[in-house]
Amino acid sequence: MAEVFAALTTSHVPAMGAAVDLGKTRDEYWRPVFEGYEFAKRWIAETRPDVVILVYNDHATALGLDVIPTFALGCGAEFEPADEGWGRRPVPMVKGDPELAAHIAQSLILDEFDLTLINRMDVDHGLTVPLSMVFGQPEAWPCKVIPLAVNVVQYPPPTGNRCLRLGHALRKAVASYDRDLRVMVWGTGGMSHQLQGPRAGLINSEFDARFMDLLIDAPEDAASIRHVDYLRESGSEGIELVMWLIARGALTPKIRTVRRFYHVPASNTAVGHLILENAI
Ligand code: DHB
Ligand code: FE
């Protein structure tokens, strides 16, 4: 049977992707960030997932204001890196897993999570930057990736509670798949940042540390953080953190923290990164 055995969370700052693509990861500014992901590179080489369900948000790239799905599952066989204005990132094509994605779609929708299904879309920095941070620059991504896009751009995004419950349902969906697959769920985006308006540049390290503590030890409490509190405390883009709750929900209630990393700043953002495994 398939199993979700670990979760990984990470910020997805586009400038980190540019640092990889332009060979700047050892520059003074970037070195502490990329050193913080060396552990993840070793860990992923050892744990070798077959499939990553990558929870991310599209930034009005493939999904503009014409169509705004709250939760959208990528069911296609492949997804091309998007052109976000500077050409497509020089990263491999993302290979999906249509069979597992179809199973997850059926399980989640019958479990009353009314997903949008997407067979064709390009994937933006929200998805490709986490892959680069964890896998570096391979010829091909070493596992299949099922994109799960969450609307955190246009109000109203889903609640943290709904995201945690979706994680629970995702765990159940994977566990009922009749093939031996080792699956990880990644929750991406965050941590505190605001890209616009008078508070642009806002970082709140206390909020970020508290969020990580709650996500690990008291996910129901993390899930009860209201939209307005994300907005006030973690800035207008801090709401991306609800996606971390999907990854957390996909694990067992008791977990092991394998890695915790935090660095300020990268571009306008507080970079946070966790690796969590089920505690058996
Ligand atoms: C930045 C961070 C993001 O999460 C994003 O989507 C775009 C830009 C930044 O810090 O520059
Ligand atoms: Fe973002």
Write structural notes for this entry:
With 280 residues, the protein is of the alpha/beta class. It has one domain (3-269): Protocatechuate 4,5-dioxygenase, Chain B, CATH 3.40.830.10. It has ten helices and ten strands. It has an eight-stranded mixed beta sheet, sandwiched between helices. Strands 4-5 form a two-stranded antiparallel ribbon. The chain is globular, with a radius of gyration of 17 Å. The site of fe (iii) ion (FE) has 6 residues, from loops. Fe (iii) ion is lined by residues 12, 59, 126, 189, 237, 240. This is Protocatechuate 4,5-dioxygenase subunit beta. Residues 7-271 form the Extradiol ring-cleavage dioxygenase class III enzyme subunit B domain. Pfam families: LigB (PF02900). GO terms for molecular function: ferrous iron binding; oxidoreductase activity, acting on single donors with incorporation of molecular oxygen, incorporation of two atoms of oxygen.
